Amino acid sequence: MRVALGQFAVSKVWQENADICTKLMRDAHAGGADLLVLPEGILARDITDPDIVLKTAQPLDGPFMTQLLAESRNSDMTVMMCVHVPTGGQRVFNNLVTIRRGEIVAQYLKLHLYDAFAAKESTNVQPGGEIPGLIDIAGLKLGLMTCYDLRFPELARRHAVDGADVLILPAAWVKGPGKEAHWEVLVTARALENTCYIVAVGECGERNIGASMVVDPLGVAVVRAGEGPALIFADIDPKRISHARAVLPVLANRRFARPELAGTTA
């Protein structure tokens, strides 16, 4: 599977962001990608306005997703990104949406909200309540995560136990003391401890670190971006997964049960 990572700085204006995404989709398709992963919160971003997610949220049949869905009809490439959508209440959902051939094929509502480092995502965002199922692309099984989920190993392990070969992580990792190191350590750990590839795509710009990367099942960074806009590619090799699980059989050796979401049997 060939994956493209589309890193960019999200604007205050949804139309500008939709146009950037459309171009990234065309360029990723031209580069032979089976999958394009975009960052978290790509509808709009304004570091001076913490309530922008409420003001700019759109339903999945709104103009932002309508434009991206129209573009996706032009290829068989799968595209994943996070957008804020209305809940019908006072908050919004942070929704990881998967599209293919003009259709929405999967959704994941972010479980772990970023209430840390003086931020409080839960003020405006309602958490999801279900573990997402795996998605099949090019013969591989993919597990979905979003940004702050990275700090909680249970979701990644659940995906691996359920059969995931690759973990997908759109993010908007906020800058701060040590935060770049946290990102690299945690992305690498989730790949290595689960013998999965991880595709981690970060927003760049004034607030966020960028640093999108693909790490293989033995903890090797296959490709990485810097702090500016970028479109980078990596090849996911099933033989590398098989090799990692043969020499490092942590999934077979584990003694703990399959992780479950608290308060549910999902």
TrEMBL record:
UniProt keyword list: Hydrolase
Entry keyword Cell wall biogenesis/degradation: no
Superkingdom to which the source organism belongs: Bacteria
Gene Ontology terms, MF aspect: hydrolase activity
Domain CN hydrolase, residue spans: 1-238
InterPro entries: C-N_Hydrolase, C-N_Hydrolase_sf, De_GSH_amidase, UPF0012_CS
Keyword Hydrolase found: yes
Family: Belongs to the carbon-nitrogen hydrolase superfamily. NIT1/NIT2 family.
PANTHER family referenced in this protein's UniProt entry, alphabetically: DEAMINATED GLUTATHIONE AMIDASE (PTHR23088:SF27), NITRILASE-RELATED (PTHR23088)
Protein name per its UniProtKB record: Hydrolase
Originating species: Phyllobacterium myrsinacearum
